[in-house]
Amino acid sequence: MKKLILLLFPLLMLAGCINEDDLKFHRVENLSVSTVVNAVIVVENSSGRNITVSDAMFRVFDRENNEIGILTVADELHLPKKSTTSLAVPIRIRLTNPLVGLGLLSNIEENARNMTVTGNFRVKAGMLKKNFKVNDMPLSEFLSIFEGY
Q1: What is the DSSP pairing of strand 67-73 with strand 83-95?
Q2: 0.70 cut: is pTM over it?
Q3: How much is the pLDDT for 26?
Q4: What are the angstrom distances between the C-alpha of 21 and each of 18, 24, 66?
């Protein structure tokens, strides 16, 4: 709190020296919204190896192929061998066009048919690593991978 006050004090002092006509805002050139959504996903790993999923990043597009946003899994996911686990998955969401993105995401069940997903993620099991890609998959199909959608 002290740091905030120390930062704001010089600005407040300068505010008296600036005429409000000297400052004009012309337009917003870029606006992005970024937030983290925490999802809990139940995952079954029936293999005999512990699995790590990393570098998961997906781009979401509308039907005209305009990018709506980018979804990134913030942490590595660790799946214990021969188990079913509830994983807390922090998903960082950055909307490229916040107004369009929020409008489409507000009714995701209806709009998912008109959106696609492209992205990739890395899976590591022991010494083996493999990259997986998703290309232009309908968002409704991508979401149906997870039970309960």
Answers
A1: antiparallel
A2: no
A3: 62
A4: 8, 7, 38
